[in-house]
Protein: Lipase
Organism: Cryptolaemus montrouzieri
Amino acid sequence: MYNFTSNCFAEITRFTKNCITERGYPVEEHSVTTNDGYINSMFRIPHGKRKQSNDDISRPPVLLCHGLTCSCTGTTFSRKHVKWNPEINKDEYWNFSWHEIAIYDLPAFVDYILEKTGFDKLFFIGHSQGATVYAAFVSRRPEYNQKVALCCLLGPPIIFENTNGFRIKFVSNLIIPLMETLHNFLGLPIYELPFIGLARFLGLYSKPNTMSHTFLQSLLFFLAGNSNYDQTSKLDFTKFCYTTPNAGSMRQIYHYSQIMRNNRFAEYDYGLEENMKVYGSPDPPLYDLSKVVSPVALFYSRNDMYTDHRDMAKLEQLLGNVVYKHEVAMETFNHLDFLAGNDSIFLLYRHISKIMKKYI
């Protein structure tokens, strides 16, 4: 089977650039090396369709941070390290969760962008894991508050006190602990998220309305939330699967499972003995969300299985400076629709643009 993770960087990079240029936008590719040695790619749209890069109009930069299996360390775009090979040095390379993305990747991205653009601040938009890592990032590195003009968190999976649907319980309380047991106690190494290559193969090469195609779509919506498909009827599923789902570390999933099961937005739990070595306490420390004092805008929906409206109310209280909160005005709008919804431009993106303009 075609290796979607190791052998197709140039092909997927070309596809991503083409998606941008075909819509009339310029695009640049940049590489950023983090303090822990990972080499990540970023794609930049330097200006609009009809504008020149050297005109006098000020354009504050915007950093878009995507969700799990979309675009982060370990994916096809960012699968390099100064020392380790993800196929050979698996113990070392895949030893990260979204905590490391928060404390190493995001500071490197922010500093790089501000240096390249000459601005003092940027806008941050994070969807799903992108929202999670921002909260962890600024709570651990509060000095970066002054570098963010406004942060927009879309469907932020941070508080799980009321987010307790069957699928959440099934994945976090059964499947993930089982995989942890296989890895930690039986010695079966599970480093990368399993079956990603197979899922993308089915998405790319199975024909519409076939059993494999329908199965993959159903699995996607099982993970994203209930849908009547009204918001994804225009989604080109083949193109979508060209880059997503992508690779990731199992530790990212383990970390999410921990905060879901324990109702604690905390650092990675290594177990009692290792926690004492790493943290000096039996439990991992909580992320102090009150330290997130840069302006924050929250966007969520009632049908998103990872965010309950009551948890959004608590998150608003815990964060240090929520300036705007928006519930998407559609009952069936789910976690995937933030990215691919037919009506997202009207239900969501225009609201994001409107609040951002107040902070330029």
